[in-house]
Amino acid sequence: MDWVEKFLNDAEKMFQIPRSELEKFVQYMLSDPVKVQDWAERLQISDTDFLMLTTIYTLYKTEDRVIDLLSNIELKVDEAIGLISTAAANLLNALPQEDRKPILAQLILAIALQTEDAQLRNSLAEYAKVILTE
């Protein structure tokens, strides 16, 4: 099963959005991201659910490539922290000011969604919400 099919199956269960609408979402994300916001507004998707949906989409889309990139890298904990924090900071600094908080929230949510510890995962997800409301 390719990542799109897996995303469609999981997102349909998680968000109760009809598969046909999720297929439109994927099409817009791949070819015309400007339409994604209109799509979300038309379906009255909350900001929190929209952030979660786009984050899950990004994780599914990039999972294989990221694993391939990292598979041959052996890092100590401090080196991994340096790599990840530098990449995140460079990403945020390259963005327009108004895009930084939503992207930071999405980064934190992406970490939360991949964290096995439920308490830590929930805390990170809550912090992502706080960033969006500041």
Summarize the structure.
It is built from 7 helices and no strands. The protein has helices at 3-15, 19-31, 34-42, 47-70, 77-94, 97-113, 118-133.
Main features:
7 helices; 134 residues; mainly alpha; single chain
Mean pLDDT: 93
From the helix content, strand content and strand pairing, which structural class follows? mainly alpha
Please mark out the parts with pLDDT under 50 across 5 or more consecutive residues, or reply none.
none
Radius of gyration computed on alpha carbons: 16 Å
For the record, give the distance between the C-alpha atoms at the N and C termini, rounded to a whole number.
Answer: 39 Å
* Secondary-structure element pattern, one letter each: HHHHHHH
Report on this structure.
The protein is built from seven helices and no strands. Helix content is 82%, strand content 0%. The protein is an all-alpha fold and 134 residues long. Helix 1 packs across helix 2, helix 1 packs antiparallel against helix 4 (47-70) and helix 2 runs antiparallel to helix 3. It has helices spanning 3-15, 19-31, 34-42, 47-70, 77-94, 97-113, 118-133. The chain folds into two domains: 1-72; 75-133.
